[in-house]
Design brief:
Helix content is 41%, strand content 12%. It is an alpha/beta fold and 186 residues long. The protein has two domains: 125 residues, HAD superfamily/HAD-like (Rossmann fold); 49 residues, no CATH class. Strand 2, helix 6 and strand 3 form a beta-alpha-beta unit. Helix 1 runs antiparallel to helix 4 and helix 3 runs antiparallel to helix 4. It is globular. The relative contact order is 0.19. The model has no long low-confidence stretch (mean pLDDT 92).
Length: 186
């Protein structure tokens, strides 16, 4: 196994408490209950707001998103661990459920990652098997030859395992480090 697939938030990037969620604000203002379409559309929030007839909120929502992006921070062990794994010959990918606005910020924080597979860019969100299939196609690997590391039991453990990918949960809240998830430690 030489392929590692990692979740972004809660695994590589610290989850910061949100004062408000821009996409929840959008759904509430539009009177809809829909989180998934925001994660599977490769469109800025302003386009979605216009489609939902609340385009006047776009500047406010964009400011919320900018504030969130400005707070993104890698866990202190991430860069060193990913560089070490790359040095050992591992192909590293990030597979994450993300809305459009967050993708470039995540890419910018993780230049040592080989590939990024984001739900908004492929139109499928974890735990939909399509996101795991796309990830394996992009990485040119068989599911059984990869390890998925993440913090969500449903999306990062159960979903990959159902698709045939080995999986490992990381518990950052308990102080677990990414290096603890090294393939030999699983």
């Amino acid at each position: 196994m030489k392929t590692l697939i990692l979740d972004a938030f809660g695994t590589l990037i610290e989850k910061r408490p949100r004062r408000t969620n821009p996409y929840t604000s959008l759904a509430d203002a539009a009177g809809v209950e829909m989180r998934l379409p925001f994660l599977t559309r490769n469109e800025p929030i302003s386009v979605l707001a216009n489609e939902l007839n609340v385009g006047f909120l776009a500047p406010y929502l964009e400011r919320q998103i900018k504030t969130e992006i400005d707070s993104f921070l890698l866990y202190s062990d991430v860069q060193r661990t990913l560089l070490e794994w790359r040095g050992l010959g591992f192909q590293i990918a990030v597979c994450s459920n993300l809305a459009f606005e967050y993708c470039s910020a995540v890419r910018g924080l993780l230049p040592m990652v080989n590939h990024f597979i984001f739900s908004c860019e492929i139109g499928a969100a974890k735990p939909d098997p399509e996101i795991y299939a796309t990830t394996c196609r992009v990485l040119k690997c068989r599911p059984r030859d990869a390890l998925f590391i993440g913090d969500s039991k449903r999306a990062d453990y159960d979903g990959p395992r159902a698709f045939g990918i080995k999986a490992r949960l990381i518990n950052r809240g308990q102080g677990e480090l990414l290096a603890h998830c090294f393939p030999g430690n699983c």
